[in-house]
Structure formats: C-alpha cells, structure tokens
Amino acid sequence: MLSKAKIKYINSLQQKKYRQKEQLFIVEGEKIIAEVLSQDVFKVHSIYATDIWLNKNMTFAAQYTGILTTISVAELKKISTLKTPNQVLVLLEIPKGNISSNNPDQSFNLVLENIQDPGNMGTIIRIADWFGVENIFCSKGCVDCYNPKVIQATMGSFLRVPIQYTDLEVLFQKHTELPIYGAVLGGTNLQQSRLKTPSFLLIGNEGKGLSEATQQLITEGITIPKFGGAESLNAAVATGILCAAFRQ
User: Fold this and answer.
1) Cβ-contact 186, 154 below 8 angstroms
2) Which of 48, 125, 179, 201 has the fewest Cβ atoms within 10 Å of its own Cβ atom?
3) Which pLDDT tens digit goes with each residue over 195-211?
4) From the CB of residue 167, how many other CB atoms can be counted at a distance below 10 Å?
5) Would you say 175 and 105 are in contact if contact means Cβ atoms under 8 Å apart?
6) In the prediction, which pLDDT does 1 show?
7) d(CA 151, CA 35)
8) Which residues are CB-neighbours of 239 under 8 A, at least 6 positions away?
9) In Å, what is the CA distance from 125 to each residue of 45, 161, 172, 174, 239?
10) What angle do helix axes 235-246 and 118-130 make, rounded to 10 degrees?
11) Where are the domains of the chain?
12) Which strand (E) or helix (H) includes residue 58?
C-alpha cells in the first residue's frame, strides 16, 4: 500500500525541478518497462506493480532484489501520468553527468535547438533510433528528455540513443571538421544537396525554426521541397524526412 507521502513524492517527479533534485524519472508501460528491465544504462530505483503484472513476471519478481511494491489499480491511477494506466510504473535513476556518447567525429549527429513540445521530442528520439543516429545533442532551451511525456513518446528509444544537453556553439567549435547542415526555409533543395556523414544535422524550434545566431554557424542550409499548400512541417516529421535522406 502506498502512503500519501509516497504518492505525493512520485507525482512530484512529473516536474523537472523535482526530477533534478531527486535524480529520478518515471517510466510506464509494459513494453517499455520490459526493455528497461533488460538494459544496464539506467539503474532501476524502484518498481510499483499490480498483482496482474507480478503474476506475468513471476520469474523476474522472484529474482529482483531492489524496491518492489505491490499496489492496487486504484493506487496506480494516483501515481500514473497516463489517462489509462498500465500495470506497472518504474522509477529510473538519471545518470550522473552525460550518458557516454559516441565519438561525434565518426557519427551522424542530430542537434536540436529549443524543441519545446514533449511529444515532438519523444518522437524525434524514436526517429533517431530508427535511423541509427549515434548522438542527439540538445540546446539547453530544449524540453527535458526525462519529462514523462517525452519518455512515453520515445517508446523505449531513449534507452538506445545517447542524449546530451550542451552549448551548441561550443559543441561545433570542438568538431570543426564536420559539416553542419541546418533545416531552414530557402536553403538548398534536399534532393540536390550532397549530404555527408559524419556530420551534424540541426533541427530548430517548432514555431521559430533555427535562431539567427545558430544559422550563422551552419555549413549548409537545406530545405525539404514543397509541392502543396502547407505552411510548414511538424519538427518531428521534418526530422524523419531529413534522416531518411542522410541514410540513402
């Protein structure tokens, strides 16, 4: 049974300041958690599960030596971030420092500037996983990648793609040999650009795109050709199209 204090504590982790204070974040959903429990990048802090989940995972439960609390469906609803809670919720530890990344000079690197929407961020991480992007670098103005909505939208891909928050200008100064492609309006037609990897691919804010300061840093602006009347593309959709072009 969960105390009121424990329920309040878990709910507090929906806010960035408390995630940072406690160095914990929430993961939900049987499929994602099945992956979580078989990886070693993120350390499991505690598990809150219903009898239904425990009965399905008796072998794991018998071997698990960490904090495992049996809760009712009603209690799960009180701590869940989902409209329709699943059968289990896990708290993972946020790694100290940045997760070990792949060498940018040998990688296809996705760079995000001021992505604000958690759903977009999570979908972009999932897209990066699909296309084998080795690193994601985020400006400090991006939404927190440990936001529950981001984690849910990744469908487990946050486990496989190293994500770092950094000063973008400093990042590029450290890797001056790599071309920096920026998604902009009025750039080189994507179909006519000679895309190279290793490289950086820059995606800007959903409404404003790349800032003027960041546009000054790019090697080449690239544009997805437009054939219809839509004013713009969703940031995650654009990321998918661009990543596909780089992987051709």
Assistant:
1) no
2) 179
3) 999 999 999 999 999 99
4) 11
5) yes
6) 81
7) 13
8) 110, 124, 127, 128, 203
9) 23, 7, 21, 23, 10
10) 10
11) 4-93, 104-246
12) helix 58-63
Q: Identify which of 179, 177, 184 has the alpha carbon closest to the alpha carbon of residue 222.
A: 184
In contact, 138 and 164? CB cutoff 8 Å: yes
Residue tagged 């991006």 (tokens): 142
| Cβ proximity of 146 and 25 under 8 Å | yes
CATH class of the domain whose range is 4-93? alpha beta
Q: What are the backbone dihedrals phi and psi of residue 142, each rounded to the nearest 5 degrees, phi first?
A: -80, 155
Locate 202 and state its tokens.
Answer: 């820059």
- Quick check: 100 pLDDT over 70? no
Cα gap 145→165, rounded to integer Å: 9
pLDDT computed for residue 99 by the predictor: 65
> What is the reported pLDDT for 98?
62
Q: What CA–CA distance (Å, rounded) separates 77 from 102?
A: 38
Q: What is the spatial distance between Cα 222 and Cα 217, in angstroms, rounded to a whole number?
A: 14
Show the tokens assigned to 140: 């400090």
CA 182/CA 203 separation, integer angstroms:
6
Q: Give the pair of three-digit tokens for residue 133.
A: 């992007």
Instruction: Pull the structure tokens for residue 6.
Output: 């424990």
Could you count the other beta carbons within 10 Å of the beta carbon of residue 123? 22
Angle 226-202-197 (CA atoms, 0-180°, nearest 5)?
Answer: 95
CATH of 104-246, one of 3.40.1280.10, 3.40.1580.10, 3.40.50.300, 3.40.50.620: 3.40.1280.10
At position 230, the amino acid (one-letter code) is: A
Largest CA-CA distance found in the chain, in angstroms, rounded = 61
Q: What amino acid is encoded at 214 in this protein?
A: T
Q: Would you state the structure tokens that stand for residue 117, as one six-digit string?
A: 């929407």
The pTM of this model reads 0.95
